[in-house]
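Hi support team,

I'm filing this because I wasn't sure whether my run with magnesium ion finished correctly. The job status page said complete, but I'd like someone to confirm that the output block is well-formed before I use it downstream. Pasting the exact inputs I used:
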Amino acid sequence: MSTPTPANTPAAAAAAAQEAAKPSNFLRQIIENDLEKGTYASRRWAGSPGDAAHHAAGQPDPAKIRTRFPPEPNGYLHIGHAKSICINFGLAHDYGGVCHLRFDDTNPEKEDQEYVNSIIDAVQWLGFDWSQPGNDKPYQASDYFDFMYRAAETLIEAGHAYVDEQTVEQIRINRGDFSKPGVDSPFRTRTPAENLARFREMRDGQHEDGSMVLRAKIDMASPNINMRDPAIYRIRRATHHNTGDKWCIYPMYTFAHPIEDALEQITHSICTLEFEDQRPFYDWLMDRLCESGLLAAPAPHQYEFARLNLTYVITSKRKLAQLVYDHKVSGWDDPRMPTIVGLRRRGYTPAALQMFAERIGVTKSDSWIDYGTLEGCLREDLEAKAHRGMAVINPVKLVLTNWDEVMGAGHLEPCSLPALPHAAEGVESPVRHFTIGKEVWIEREDFEEVPPKGYKRLFPGNKVRLKGGYVVECTGATRDADGNITEVLATVVPDTKSGTPGADSVKVKAAITWVGVADGVQAEVRMYDRLFLDAQPDAGGKDFIESLNPNSLKVVTAIVEPSLANAKPDDKFQFERHGYFVADRVDHKAEKPVFNLAVGLKDSWGK
Ligand code: ATP
Ligand code: MG
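And here is everything the job wrote out:
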C-alpha cells in the first residue's frame, strides 16, 4: 500500500465529489470571470468604508471580492434571508473575499434594536462571521448620511439633480406609464445654484414634509419608469434611532443602497429579482459619482437572483409580524414560524439550512421549492448525529403477568442500546441504559385484539420483542366499563434478553418500542404540523390567515426513556420510529422535559 497523498485521501475525494455536486450558480461564473480578468484587482481598501480619497490612501484590498448582506432591521430574519446569507457569506468565503453585515437603516421609522440584535444572532448562529481584523462591528447605512448628502449636492452641482415642488399627485401623473412617456416637471430647468439653495433649505427644515423632493435628472421618456427622474431625497421629520433629530431629510432606498455598496468597496452586490428594474439607475448613479471623483472606481455591480418561495410557508417580514401580533403563533420564535429563531427552536441546525441553500442553488427565475426539500436536509443532517431514544407517545400499559414468578418479585433488569447505532466506523457510540420490569409502556397502536391482515405486533397468541429487552407473548387485555383497553397483558419469555446468547432462540416478526414504568419519565411533546393548509398561502394576494392549519400543534404527554429525560435544551434526538425531536430551548427543564417534533422520519408532505 502506498502512503496516501492529499489528493487521494478519502477526505480529498469527498471534497472533490462535493465540489462537483455543487448545483449551478451563475454568480460563481460571474465572480470567476471577474477574478480572471482582474476587474477589481486595482481596488484599495482603507480599513473602513469611505469615499475615493479615503480608499486611495489605503492598501491594495486584501479581499478578492466583497459581498454584503444588508437587512433592514424591521423584523426577524426568515428562511429566505438564510438563503441570501448563505449565498453572500458563502461566495465571499469560497473566493477569498469578505462579506459585510450591513444594517440598512435609512428608513427612520421602522427600525428597532430588538431586530438588530436578533439579526446579529441569526447570522452568527448560521455559522458566519463578518468581523475583520480591528473591525468587528456590523456596518450601519445611517452612518453614511453625511456622505449621501454630499453625493446629492455633487449631483446637483453637476446638473444631475433638481428640487421638484410639484405635488405628489402631479409627480405621479407626470411620470406617465408603460404606454405613455412622462412629462417634464416645470422645475426641471432650474439652475444648479437654485437647486442647491433649495436643497439646503430642505435640509435646514425650512419646508414642510412632502412639499418638495430632490429628483435625479435622467430621462422622462425612458422606457424604464424607474429612470424617469426618480426621487432621491425627501423631507421627513422623524427621529432616527442612530442620528436622532439631526436630519429632517432622508435618502430614498434606491439612492442610498448603491452608495452604501460603493463606500464599502463592495464588488458584487447581490439582491433579489424585484430590483432588476433598478439596476440601470444603480449604474447611472455609480457612473455619475465615480466620474465626479467622489467614489472610487471600479464601482460595484448589482446582480439579481430569484427569491426563495417555499411551499406552505410565507416569507415576508410584514406578514410574519401579523401572525405574531394577532397571536396566531406564540411569537417570532414559535417553532412553526419560518423565521431563523423559529426554525432553530423547531430543531433545525445551521448545517441543515446551509445544505438547503446549497441544494436549491441560485437561479434567475422564480419558482417554488417543495417544503419537503427543507425537511430532507434536516433529516439528512440529524441521521448521523442525533442520539436514538425510545419514547411512547400514546401510551398504554403492558403488564408481564409472569414477571414476578420467573424474574423475581419487583426485579428490574438493566438493559442497554447504542445511542448511535449507525455510527461511522471507528466512532464509538455512547450507550443508553434503562431497565425493564413487570410493567412497561407501549404505544396503543401496538396492540390489536383482532389483528388486521399482516399485523405483526401484539395480539393474543403472538410474540414480539420489546426492543433492547425481552421477547414477550401477548395473552390479551383488560378493559374498563366503556370497553376501552386499560392494560395489555403478556408473559415474558425468559432467557431472550437482547444481546445475550439466548436472544435468537425465539424468532419474532416484530420488535416494538417501549419504556419501563419504573424509569420512564413523563414529557410534554409538541407535535407540530405545517402552519398553512394551502401550498401557496399568500400567492396572488390571497388572505393567508384563512388557510391557517387549525391542527398545526398538538400537545401530548409522552413517556420517554431516562437518557432522553437527561437532555439539555437544544439537544436533538431520534425518537425511534417517531421522528426527530429537540428539547425545547425555552421551556425544557430537567424536572419537566419538553420536546418539539422537528421532522418526521419519512417525507409525509402531500401524502
Ligand atoms: P421582507 O419582504 O421579508 O421584509 P426584505 O427583502 O424586505 O424581506 P431585507 O431585510 O430588505 O428584507 O432583506 C435583506 C436581504 O435578504 C436582501 O438582500 C433580500 O434580497 C434578501 N431576501 C429577503 N427575502 C428573501 C427571500 N425570500 N429569498 C432570498 N433572499 C431574500
Ligand atoms: Mg425590504
